[in-house]
Structure formats: structure tokens, C-alpha cells
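Quick one: co-fold with magnesium ion.
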Amino acid sequence: MTQRKIIHVDMDCFYAAVEMRDNPALINQAVAVGGSRERRGVISTCNYKAREFGVRSAMSTGMALKLCPSLVLMPSRMSVYVAVSSQIRQIFNRYTDLVEPLSLDEAYLDVSNCQQCYGSASLIAEKIRAEIFETTGLTASAGVAPNKFLAKIASDLNKPNGQFVISPDDVDEFSGQLSLRKIGGIGKVTASKLENFGLIDGNDIRAAKPEFLNRHFGKLADVLLARCYGIDDSVVKPNRVRKSVGVERTLARDLVTLDECILELNKLIPMLNQRYQATQKLPIHKQGVKLKFDDFQSTTVEQAVDEFNESLYLNLLTDAFERAQGRKIRLVGINVGVREAAENTENPIDDLPQLDLF
Ligand code: TTP
Ligand code: MG
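Sure, here it is.
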């Protein structure tokens, strides 16, 4: 197989950057976008100044204001973010048809066959970022690598307004030193389990026995064994058909009672609403609740619907909770099943990954 050239582009503190662009008085302030404290809102994102205070995405607004009392909180303006998202996608499409959006502000591009900039993926990434800035007034960061896995990690390394290139010659060293926590699909729980075995970076996996990894990490072992050598053969898939939009939360502490689960549910609903708005309200045909128990079994209860019914989640949750049979709850998730309009290939979001808050 010939060497691929993949770019991962990710806008810098996206929603907050849009708010600063449209309201220059905010530029020197700590700014966050999210729901109000009074309505028990959560932070969608914040600018870098706010991050210095420890404010983070998915944190409750109450907590964010405690950490940073001077925080300027802006309500989200989803329609503006969606419009910017479609502007940046038009820019991506000038370079390749192989664009896989991951969310409003993030996409993979396969530029292996792109003739522009003498075929140099680094120059293409520079040019795309410059065009994004000219068109939207916003900065983006990029990662350039021979595959999606490394490109995504690279786009974080020179944020904001920077890029990082992992050339084929660098892959071996880079992936050997890469912290396993950075591998997509490895959450906090798996990361601590790996650490308990002394497995911290790619080199540790290379040195481990595959049978040992299989025994303790099941299916994940194959992923670890590939990623520790910087291997990821997954292709850039343009225009994925989205089937569902969901949010879920792995809890810091397992829940025991239905009431505790209902409290979680009430936190998740506004977040789902926000994610769903970003789909430009695709038709909904199903709603579902997912619970994961302390024995790692999970259950899903779904119901077909004609239109979104927020209070239905309480019934679904109650049904799902009955299946706990005394087990504690370690994750609560809710989702809607959506139908992509068949002719709508210009949809600005093709798939929103499930949002895991811990
Ligand atoms: P991210 O790209 O994860 O974050 P970001 O662009 O704000 O910051 P960074 O510079 O680190 O990339 O998410 C993109 C947008 O998605 C973000 O601006 C707001 C939204 N979002 C939420 O609404 N909730 C969340 O929990 C996260 C992570 C993002
Ligand atoms: Mg971003």
C-alpha cells in the first residue's frame, strides 16, 4: 500500500472563538459558552484564558464560576456555529472529496491524491488554515500524519493556531513514546488498568506478551498492538450516514438508586438537546436510554416515537433500571435515533461521536 497523507483539522476553542469574533469586548476576558448556573447548565467550551483557571468542557457552570468568578458566560448560538462549520467544509472540499467530519469543528481529510501545493500535506494544511482564517476570522489547528489515529493526536500538539507533522520516518519513535491515554477509545478506567500493569506508553505494549494483553484487555489488545507501532488502517469515510445522536456519562461514583439516576438524566437531557439542535433537527424516530452496570453488562431500552418527547426518558430509564437487579450503575446514556434526509448530502454534521463526559 502506498503511504497515505491524512490531515486532521480542529478549530480552536470553537464556540468560544466564534463568540469572541462577534464581540471583540470579550477578547481579553475569560469566556465560556454554556447554560446558566440558575438553570444548572454545563459548559460547552471556553477560551484559553478560562482554561488557565481550570474551566473545562462538560463542567457544570456552577463549578466553572467557582473556579473563575470573572468568567463571562455566553449562551450558545448553534445556528452560527453550524454556518461556520459549513464554510470550513467548503474549504476542505477544495482540496479533496475525502472529508470525514467528526463534529462541527473537526474533520479528517485524505489528501494522498491531492495535486495542490506540490502534493505536500504540510503545505496543504497551512493553506487550509490560512483560508479558514481569511473566510471566518477564526483559527484552526491541524495534524498531518500517515493515518487518522496519528493525525488526530498531532492536531492537539501545537494548539492553538498551529500544526504538527508526523512524517512516516517519525512514526516508529513517536508511537513508541506515545502515552496510551492518548489512544482513541481508551477511557480513564482502561488507562488506570493499563497503568496498574505498568503499561504507560507504546514501548510498554511492544514489550508485553500478546497473550497477556488478550487475557486482560480482550478486543482492545489488537488495537493496542497496532497503535503502539503507529498503525491504523481505517479509511477516511466521507458523508457517513448518521443513525443516532447521544450523550452518555461514565460516573465518577456508581449509582445505587433510581432517584440518583434521574438526577443524572436531568443533566444529560439539555446536552442531548444541544447536540440534536446541531443536526438541524433531523427527523427523530426513536428514543433510547442506556445503562451500564458495575459488572460491565449494559442494557438499552428504546421506544419508537413520531416526535421528540423529553418526558419519555423517565419511563425508559425506569424500565432500564429494573434490569439492574441490585447491580450498581456505572454509566447513564440517552440518545435519539434520527433519519438522515436522503438528498441532504450537504448536511453540516455527518456523525456526532457519543459524548463521554469522564
Ligand atoms: P472541541 O474541539 O473538543 O473543543 P474546542 O474546539 O472548544 O477546543 P480545542 O481548541 O481544545 O479544540 O469541541 C468543539 C466544540 O464542540 C466546542 O467548541 C463546543 C462543543 N462541545 C460541547 O458542546 N461539549 C463538549 O463536551 C465538548 C468537548 C465540545
Ligand atoms: Mg476544537
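If it helps, The first strand starts at residue 6 and ends at 11.
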